[in-house]
UniProtKB/TrEMBL annotation:
Gene3D superfamilies: P-loop containing nucleotide triphosphate hydrolases. Its EC number is 3.6.3.41. One of its GO terms (biological process) is cytochrome complex assembly. Keywords: ATP-binding, Cytochrome c-type biogenesis, Hydrolase, Membrane, Nucleotide-binding, Translocase, Transport. Pfam families: ABC_tran. SUPFAM superfamilies: P-loop containing nucleoside triphosphate hydrolases. The gene is ccmA. GO terms for molecular function: ATP binding; ATP hydrolysis activity; transmembrane transporter activity. It comes from endosymbiont of Tevnia jerichonana (vent Tica). InterPro entries: AAA+_ATPase (IPR003593), ABC_transporter-like_ATP-bd (IPR003439), ABC_transporter-like_CS (IPR017871), ABC_transptr_haem_export_CcmA (IPR005895), P-loop_NTPase (IPR027417). This is Cytochrome c biogenesis ATP-binding export protein CcmA. The lineage of its organism: Bacteria, Pseudomonadati, Pseudomonadota, Gammaproteobacteria, sulfur-oxidizing symbionts.
Protein backbone atom coordinates (compact mmCIF):
# COMPACT_ATOMS: atom_id res chain seq x y z
CA UNK A 1 0.00 0.00 0.00
CA UNK A 2 1.43 3.37 -1.01
CA UNK A 3 -0.48 5.45 1.54
CA UNK A 4 -3.26 5.10 4.07
CA UNK A 5 -5.47 7.34 6.17
CA UNK A 6 -5.34 9.99 3.46
CA UNK A 7 -8.19 12.47 3.52
CA UNK A 8 -8.58 15.81 1.78
CA UNK A 9 -11.14 18.04 0.12
CA UNK A 10 -10.71 20.32 -2.88
CA UNK A 11 -13.06 23.28 -3.06
CA UNK A 12 -13.73 25.66 -5.95
CA UNK A 13 -10.77 27.99 -6.33
CA UNK A 14 -8.31 25.55 -4.73
CA UNK A 15 -5.41 23.55 -6.10
CA UNK A 16 -4.21 20.36 -4.44
CA UNK A 17 -0.47 19.92 -5.00
CA UNK A 18 0.85 16.42 -4.42
CA UNK A 19 4.52 16.39 -3.52
CA UNK A 20 6.98 13.62 -2.81
CA UNK A 21 9.88 11.64 -4.12
CA UNK A 22 9.64 9.41 -7.17
CA UNK A 23 7.60 6.31 -6.41
CA UNK A 24 5.70 7.86 -3.49
CA UNK A 25 2.32 7.43 -5.23
CA UNK A 26 1.60 10.85 -6.76
CA UNK A 27 0.64 9.55 -10.19
CA UNK A 28 -1.22 6.60 -8.68
CA UNK A 29 -3.29 8.96 -6.54
CA UNK A 30 -4.13 11.17 -9.52
CA UNK A 31 -5.25 8.11 -11.48
CA UNK A 32 -7.44 7.08 -8.56
CA UNK A 33 -8.91 10.60 -8.40
CA UNK A 34 -10.05 10.43 -12.01
CA UNK A 35 -11.33 6.86 -11.79
CA UNK A 36 -8.68 5.23 -13.98
CA UNK A 37 -7.46 3.16 -11.04
CA UNK A 38 -9.50 1.76 -8.17
CA UNK A 39 -8.50 2.49 -4.58
CA UNK A 40 -7.80 -0.53 -2.38
CA UNK A 41 -10.06 0.97 0.28
CA UNK A 42 -11.88 4.15 1.09
CA UNK A 43 -14.06 6.29 -1.08
CA UNK A 44 -13.88 9.19 -3.49
CA UNK A 45 -16.73 11.65 -3.47
CA UNK A 46 -17.80 14.30 -5.96
CA UNK A 47 -20.34 16.66 -4.42
CA UNK A 48 -21.12 14.01 -1.81
CA UNK A 49 -21.61 11.14 -4.29
CA UNK A 50 -19.31 8.19 -4.94
CA UNK A 51 -17.50 8.81 -8.24
CA UNK A 52 -17.73 5.15 -9.23
CA UNK A 53 -21.51 5.23 -8.90
CA UNK A 54 -21.72 8.51 -10.82
CA UNK A 55 -19.63 7.15 -13.72
CA UNK A 56 -19.94 9.34 -16.83
CA UNK A 57 -21.75 12.02 -14.85
CA UNK A 58 -18.54 12.49 -12.82
CA UNK A 59 -16.25 12.34 -15.84
CA UNK A 60 -17.93 15.27 -17.54
CA UNK A 61 -16.64 17.44 -14.67
CA UNK A 62 -12.96 16.46 -14.97
CA UNK A 63 -10.11 16.71 -17.44
CA UNK A 64 -6.99 14.61 -17.02
CA UNK A 65 -3.58 15.51 -18.37
CA UNK A 66 -1.14 12.69 -17.72
CA UNK A 67 2.55 12.16 -18.40
CA UNK A 68 1.78 11.62 -22.05
CA UNK A 69 0.04 14.41 -23.91
CA UNK A 70 -2.76 12.23 -25.27
CA UNK A 71 -2.80 13.89 -28.69
CA UNK A 72 -3.22 12.04 -31.95
CA UNK A 73 0.06 12.71 -33.72
CA UNK A 74 -1.33 12.31 -37.25
CA UNK A 75 -3.94 15.00 -36.60
CA UNK A 76 -3.52 18.76 -36.50
CA UNK A 77 -3.99 20.77 -33.31
CA UNK A 78 -7.44 21.89 -34.52
CA UNK A 79 -8.48 18.30 -35.18
CA UNK A 80 -7.20 17.21 -31.75
CA UNK A 81 -9.20 20.00 -30.07
CA UNK A 82 -12.35 19.04 -32.00
CA UNK A 83 -12.05 15.52 -30.59
CA UNK A 84 -11.48 16.84 -27.05
CA UNK A 85 -14.50 19.11 -27.30
CA UNK A 86 -16.61 16.25 -28.65
CA UNK A 87 -15.64 13.99 -25.75
CA UNK A 88 -16.44 16.55 -23.07
CA UNK A 89 -18.98 19.27 -22.48
CA UNK A 90 -17.99 22.09 -24.83
CA UNK A 91 -17.07 25.37 -23.16
CA UNK A 92 -19.08 28.31 -24.42
CA UNK A 93 -17.35 31.52 -25.44
CA UNK A 94 -14.03 30.09 -26.61
CA UNK A 95 -13.24 28.95 -30.11
CA UNK A 96 -10.68 26.27 -30.84
CA UNK A 97 -8.50 28.93 -32.45
CA UNK A 98 -8.75 31.09 -29.30
CA UNK A 99 -7.64 28.14 -27.17
CA UNK A 100 -4.61 27.60 -29.42
CA UNK A 101 -3.80 31.30 -29.23
CA UNK A 102 -4.02 31.24 -25.42
CA UNK A 103 -1.35 28.53 -25.25
CA UNK A 104 0.92 30.17 -27.83
CA UNK A 105 0.09 27.92 -30.77
CA UNK A 106 -1.51 30.49 -33.06
CA UNK A 107 -0.24 29.74 -36.56
CA UNK A 108 0.23 26.03 -35.87
CA UNK A 109 -3.43 25.01 -36.11
CA UNK A 110 -2.94 23.04 -39.36
CA UNK A 111 0.52 21.55 -38.68
CA UNK A 112 0.49 17.80 -38.05
CA UNK A 113 1.04 17.35 -34.32
CA UNK A 114 3.93 14.94 -34.94
CA UNK A 115 5.88 17.84 -36.50
CA UNK A 116 5.61 19.98 -33.37
CA UNK A 117 8.20 20.14 -30.60
CA UNK A 118 7.60 18.39 -27.26
CA UNK A 119 6.85 21.76 -25.66
CA UNK A 120 4.32 22.61 -28.37
CA UNK A 121 2.67 19.22 -27.96
CA UNK A 122 2.38 19.89 -24.21
CA UNK A 123 0.80 23.28 -24.95
CA UNK A 124 -1.72 21.52 -27.19
CA UNK A 125 -2.56 19.14 -24.34
CA UNK A 126 -3.15 22.15 -22.09
CA UNK A 127 -5.35 23.76 -24.76
CA UNK A 128 -7.65 20.72 -24.44
CA UNK A 129 -8.37 21.83 -20.88
CA UNK A 130 -9.57 25.19 -22.15
CA UNK A 131 -12.21 23.91 -24.60
CA UNK A 132 -14.34 21.92 -22.15
CA UNK A 133 -16.39 22.86 -19.09
CA UNK A 134 -14.42 20.55 -16.79
CA UNK A 135 -14.35 22.00 -13.27
CA UNK A 136 -11.59 19.74 -11.93
CA UNK A 137 -8.30 19.62 -13.81
CA UNK A 138 -6.18 16.61 -12.82
CA UNK A 139 -2.64 17.36 -13.94
CA UNK A 140 0.36 15.05 -13.76
CA UNK A 141 3.52 17.10 -14.31
CA UNK A 142 1.78 19.69 -16.52
CA UNK A 143 4.94 21.77 -17.02
CA UNK A 144 7.01 18.95 -18.54
CA UNK A 145 8.77 20.03 -21.77
CA UNK A 146 7.81 23.69 -21.32
CA UNK A 147 10.41 26.44 -21.27
CA UNK A 148 10.47 29.03 -18.47
CA UNK A 149 8.25 31.49 -20.32
CA UNK A 150 5.83 28.68 -21.21
CA UNK A 151 5.62 27.61 -17.56
CA UNK A 152 4.83 31.17 -16.46
CA UNK A 153 2.18 31.48 -19.16
CA UNK A 154 0.55 28.17 -18.22
CA UNK A 155 0.57 29.11 -14.54
CA UNK A 156 -1.51 32.18 -15.43
CA UNK A 157 -4.00 29.97 -17.32
CA UNK A 158 -4.28 27.64 -14.32
CA UNK A 159 -4.71 30.62 -11.96
CA UNK A 160 -7.49 31.95 -14.17
CA UNK A 161 -9.23 28.57 -14.04
CA UNK A 162 -9.09 28.62 -10.23
CA UNK A 163 -10.23 32.25 -9.95
CA UNK A 164 -13.26 31.32 -12.05
CA UNK A 165 -14.32 28.61 -9.59
CA UNK A 166 -12.35 25.75 -11.07
CA UNK A 167 -10.29 23.25 -9.09
CA UNK A 168 -7.04 21.41 -9.75
CA UNK A 169 -5.17 18.40 -8.41
CA UNK A 170 -1.61 18.22 -9.63
CA UNK A 171 1.92 16.97 -9.26
CA UNK A 172 4.96 18.91 -10.33
CA UNK A 173 8.66 18.94 -9.72
CA UNK A 174 8.80 22.60 -10.75
CA UNK A 175 8.50 25.37 -8.23
CA UNK A 176 4.97 26.69 -8.58
CA UNK A 177 4.70 30.43 -9.08
CA UNK A 178 0.95 30.73 -8.54
CA UNK A 179 -0.02 34.06 -7.08
CA UNK A 180 -3.01 34.60 -4.80
CA UNK A 181 -4.17 31.00 -5.20
CA UNK A 182 -5.32 28.71 -2.39
CA UNK A 183 -2.89 25.77 -2.49
CA UNK A 184 -3.37 22.62 -0.43
CA UNK A 185 -0.12 20.65 -0.25
CA UNK A 186 0.23 16.97 0.61
CA UNK A 187 3.66 15.36 0.74
CA UNK A 188 3.19 11.66 0.05
CA UNK A 189 6.80 10.90 1.03
CA UNK A 190 5.88 11.76 4.60
CA UNK A 191 2.95 9.33 4.81
Amino acid sequence: MLFEDLSFCINPGQALVLEGRNGSGKTSLLRILCGIRLPESGQLLWQGEDIFKLGPEFHEHISYLGHKDGSKLDLTPLENLRIARGLGKAKEGISLEDALDQVGLYGFEDVPTRNMSAGQQRRLAIARLLVTEAKLWILDEPFTSLDRKGIEHMERLFENHLRNGGMAAMTTHHRIGFQKVDLVRINLSER
